Amino acid sequence: MAIQQTKTYLLIFFSFIYSITSLYADYIDYADYARDTLMLIPKPQSIKIQNATHLFEDTINNNKIAIQYVSSIPQALVNQKEAYHLTITPDSIFIKATADQGVYWAKQTLNQLITQYRNKHYLPCCEIVDWPAFHIRGFMHDVGRSYISPDELKREIAILSTYKINTFHWHLTENLGWRLESKIYPQLNDSANFGRLPGKYYTIDEAKDIAAFCKAHQVLLIPEIDMPGHSAAFRKTFGCDMQSPEGMDILKQLIQEICIEIFPDLPYLHIGTDEVEITNPEFVPEMVQYIRSMGKKVISWNPGYTYHPGEIDMIHMWSSRGKPLTNTPAIDSRYHYINHFDNFADLIALYNSNIGNREYEKDNIIGAIMAVWNDRFVYPEKNILIENAFYPLMLTFAESSWQGGRKKYFDQQGTLLKEDSPEYPLFIDFENRILWHKQNMLNNLPFPYVRQTNVKWRITDAFPNYGNLQQSFPPEKKTKNTLYLSRENIPYPRSYRCCHIPASCMGRNDTLLLRQPQAQSYSLCIYMGMVAENTNRWSMDEHAKLQQVGKRSSSSSRRMGLSKK
How far apart are CA 558 and CA 223, in angstroms? Predict the structure, then answer.
């Protein structure tokens, strides 16, 4: 009996020792693991990592987190309202901030720090002091041209807010459609008055819901009603121009509905004013004054209407001709059109570029907005994200606009990444983090980006065929098998040569019409997700059948990766 009891006690004792040892091993293993896996985007301004962990057993919002509102975060150079000081110890989580925005961003950092390890959730013990270099860090969708569903917009707002993107610019009206419901002029939303996607618009309830959703995610919503240009849908509905007396009266009624009934709590209304001849010099000043009378501040594109200081509340620079206005806050979108970007080269430029030639917010340069202009119809809406590399570019912008500190602007920095430059190791670190997020946080979303820092680019001269279109060269002789597109092999191997074929060259039934053959020979050509082989054999007016290998892209021309199967 005594022997049996002894065995039982020994079993309990050794089980206890094993549990403690196992727990300690977990602790030690994770402490080492955590130091190498702080894959935060954007990377904080200051972070100190400790050799300890916090066992996490609840959600961020429900867990016992101590929050203290303070008058300032002394280390924050700018934007105190968004600054935070986060401290994680083995026993506590402590947030200091000056406002709710800072608390919210601290919680987004916590969400990214949570790691599952051996079926347990941990936070690395650390101290983070963080603040944004610019207080406008946004994205814009041109839903006037291409309607995007409310669910998709909310999904993007929620996801991007976890990366501290804090502004959504909603371009609601265009020549092709007025996509915001009006109760006083319902004919605006009649299908007959749309040039694309007839009858697709946001109801007032949907617009209010999106505004509330933005507020809950600490995202500033900026609705835009473009005037007096980009307004063919308005003219088609009412039979008059916005700048006419009748048009101005109608527009004021619509503005009142928008400012008072639909978006009563929003601080700004964007009024466009770009790419249009101003025939009525009273139009813009009168509209600005009217909107201000309802408690809103007014934003206008630049170039656009010519203002003097004090005549507009904020300008939004949209082209290289855009210039800051004295004593007026300015948003920079001059080199921020995602639909113009290359997925790889321009991502490097975006990562390395500052905003408005400022390293941090100053001289009224308050931030930037990345714009997606859907000039061409893209369907389904998911393809807008795929074809514009939306999430890779937005995460890159989230990093550079939050961190600041970049020395050069787009037109100075360029798209090259030199191995001997100080930016090279920083970009490698960022690329590791963005690919980690692709795999672990955004794995169910379109994310067209793969590692490029391991690729050595070689640019060659054109092959010397001396006008002989039948001449072939080694790359063509080696690639005789069928070539297929592969999203996992971007950029394409060096041994392949590619050309871009504009939409004007396409004939019926996916046929390529080479009416003007170049004095060069290419191994293959790519158009809209299709591949054609042996292009060196084509001659004038011959038709080359293209092999369908994937869904057609809506872009006029597109570079794709290639792999050999």
Answer: 31
Q: Is 11 exposed, middle or buried (0-12, 13-18, 19+ CB in 10 A)?
A: exposed
pLDDT over 90 at 542, yes or no: no
Cβ atoms 375, 435 nearer than 8 A: no
Rounded CA separation 257/253 (Å): 6
Residue in 164, 153, 256 with CA at minimum distance from that of residue 217: 164
Q: Taking a C-beta distance cutoff of 8 angstroms, is the pair 243, 283 a contact?
A: yes
Listed by start position, the domains of the chain span: 2-130, 136-416, 474-564
The C-alpha atoms of residue 481 and residue 505 are separated, in whole angstroms, by 25
Angstrom distance (rounded) from CA 521 to CA 537: 9
- Predicted confidence at residue 516, as pLDDT, reads 34
User: Cα 262 to chain center, whole Å?
Assistant: 26
Q: What is the pLDDT of residue 4?
A: 63
Identify the H or E element spanning 371.
strand 365-372
Classify strands 93-97 and 84-88 as parallel, antiparallel or unpaired. antiparallel
Q: How many residues does the chain have?
A: 565
Give the span between the Cα atoms of 49 and 34, in whole angstroms. 9
Distance CA 227, CA 197 (A): 21
User: Pick from 365, 417, 370: which is nearest to 398 by CA?
Assistant: 370
pLDDT in tens, 49-72: 999 999 877 666 556 799 999 999
User: Taken in order 228, 229, 230, 234, is the CA torsion positive or negative?
Assistant: positive
CATH number of 136-416: 3.20.20.80
Q: What is the pLDDT of residues 377-411, one digit of tens each?
A: 999 999 999 999 999 999 999 999 999 999 999 88
How many angstroms separate the CA atoms of 367 and 134, rounded? 5
Output the pTM of the full model.
0.79
CATH superfamily of the domain spanning 2-130 = Chitobiase/beta-hexosaminidase domain 2-like (3.30.379.10)
Could you identify the residue written with the tokens 């972070």?
A: 47
